[in-house]
Amino acid sequence: MLSRTVLTHQVFTGVSRRHLAALVEELAGSWQAVVEGRRHEARGGARKRGAGAGARHRLVFVDRLVATLIHLRHDVPHAALGLLFGVDRSTITRAIGEIRGLLTERGCAVPDRPGLRLRTLADVFAYAQAEGIEPRPDATEVQVRRPPSGRGGRRAFVSGKKKQNTMKATVVADHQGRTLWTDALRPGRMHDTTAARNEGIGPRFRHSRDVEALLDDGYPALRRDHPGQAVTPPRKGNKISPPEALEARLQARHRHPSKRISVEHALADHKRWKQLVRWTHRRETLPVTYRAIAGLVPDRNTTG
Question: What is the pLDDT of residue 27?
Answer without folding.
Answer: 95
